[in-house]
Each structure stands twice: as structure tokens, then as C-alpha cells.
Amino acid sequence: MEPTDPELIKAVLDGDAASFEPLVRKYLPRVFGTARRYARRESEVEDIVQEVWLKSFQKLSTFRGDAPFEHWLMRLTVRTCYDFLRSHQRNRETNFTELTEPETDWLDRFVAAPDNAGDDAAGAKQLVQRLLEQLSPPARLVITLLELEDRSVKEIAQLTGWSVPLVKVRAFRARAEMRKLLAKITKEKYL
Amino acid sequence: MNLEQLNQKLLAAARRNVPDDRVPFAFEKRIMARLGSVPVPDGLALWAHGLWRAAIPCIAVVVLLGVSSLFVAPEIPAASPAAPASSELSQEFENTLLAAVDQPASSTEDQR
To answer: Cβ contact (<8 Å) for B16 and A119?
Structure first.
């Protein structure tokens, strides 16, 4: 029978570092999936994942065990991703006239007949990725958790460590930021 | 153009685009190797390290003060007018300090 998470954690805390490997193997896909939502380049994703595991190893003694290890790990992952977004706030001011061909095609199709522009098209995926990259770090985090991962405000508060009112305020601002960017696209492209 | 509809379409596109959760080959080995090279933080060692770091500037200050006390000796004039001055100062200090205690006594003498 395979040891459970609490047993593995206890072994690690007792000095058996090798017991950490089954935990890493078990939750690695989940951490990779989350990191890929916030970083595009694979090298950046790997850096985030490594940092998550280093932090989790160093802070394992702070895990109280009253909630599953996965929840604690996901909180750490989301916070590491947020730190990554904040430290990589490069020049987010890009020009939407530099849209790629699939993006332009999809937008043209949407303008001509909104219902015919499918949301599974490559152009739509590229465009939304570009939009998300333009958002400020808190806005991107909130939009990702709230709109893309369908999490509740309370869950987001637990994951990020923000208060519930702060999540609501940031969600409101994030939606406004998103609308502003969309208005900028349409203005640059069609006016 | 309906911006709200565009927003909804794009969010739906993002929702459909679920990120890949594949793990590079032997990535867990890489993490375990990194963990082995990371020193485990020891509270006592950190405290001792901090103390040693603080000791260096403290010793430097002590040495500087010692050297300055050797080379910058207090100037005491040979005719020693400083002695009465210092005794005057101490007297004034004592008077000021004991003013509140002295006052009622003198006032009661006046009344007599």
C-alpha cells in the first residue's frame, strides 16, 4: 500500500528528504497546468514549478495538516505565479495594429457576423492570450481564477491571501481593464 | 461592435484552451537534485550568523573610541580654573535638583 500524503510529509519532516519525491511526482502535473496559465515560455514555466517545489520543501513545517496537502500546495503555486507576473511586468503597452493574421481574420469574422466567429478558433485563442498578457498582474490573476477556472470569490480569497472585498474590487477593476483593452483593439483596428 | 459579446467570446475561447499539464521527462529528479543542494535553514545558525555580522561593526566602534580616547585626551588647564567651574556646576545642579525640597524649609523660616 502506498503511503498517504500526511505519512510522506511526516517522513520528510523527520529528515527523510527522499519521501518528498512521491509527493512531487503526484502533484507535478497539477502545478505545471497552473503555471502554464501564467507563463508562456516553457523555460519560465519550469522556473515557476521549480520555485514552487523548493518553497514547499522549505516551508513544509508550516503545513498544519487541517486541510489536504493539495490545497496548501495550490495556494503556494498561485502565489508563486502571482510573484512571477509581478516580477515580469515588462512593457505591457503593445500596439494592437500588430495583430497576427489569424487574430485579424477572427476579428473580421466577428465584426461581420458575431455568431459565426467560433470561440474555438486559433485566432480567438491567440487574441485572448494577447489580451491577458496586457492585463496588470492582479487583473490577470483574478480573471484567470474567476472567469477561466470558474472559482468562487471565497476560493480566490483563500488561494491568493486577499480579503473577500479586495477580490471583489480587483475583479471589478480587472473587468474594466479588459473592456478598456477591447475598446482599444476595436478603436485601433476599425476607426 | 458589441464589446460585451466580444469579451464573452474571448473568455469562452480562453476557457476552452485548457493548459497542458504534461511534465518534462524526469522533472521530479531535477527537483530532488535541486532540493539536495539547497541548505536546510537552521534557525540557530542564522541567529549566530547574524550575531557575528553585528559583532564586526561593534568591535570597529569600540576600537575607534579606544583610539580616540588615547589620542584626544581631555584638556585640563594647568592653573585649574576648571575645578571651581566644575564644582560651581555641580553646586548649581544640586541646587536646581533640590530646589523643591529646599523651598518649603526656607519659607517656614521666613514665617518665624
So the answer is: yes
CB contact at 8 A, A31 and A53: yes
Q: Please report the pLDDT score of residue B91 as a whole number.
A: 82
- The rounded distance, in Å, linking the Cα atoms of A9 and A17 is 9
Report the pLDDT value the prediction gives residue B37, as an integer from 0 to 100: 76
Give the position of cell 496548501: A72
Is the CB of B13 less than 8 angstroms away from the CB of A125?
yes
CB-CB contact of A110 with A47 (8 Å): no
End-to-end CA distance of chain A: 66
In B, which residues are within 8 Å of A125 by CB distance? 13-14, 16-17
Model ipTM value: 0.81
Residues of chain B contacting A37 with CB distance shorter than 8 Å: 19
Pinpoint the alpha helices (H) of B1-112. 3-16, 27-37, 43-71, 82-97, 99-111
Residue B20 above 80 pLDDT? yes
| Per-residue pLDDT band at A64 (split at 50, 70, 90) | confident
| Residue contacts between A and B (CB atoms, under 8 Å) | 106
* Cα separations in angstroms, B95 against A50, B86, B87: 73, 14, 12
Q: Using an 8 Å Cβ cutoff, are A28 and B23 in contact? A: yes
pLDDT digit string (tens) for A32-46?
999 999 998 999 999
In terms of pTM, does the model score above 0.80?
no
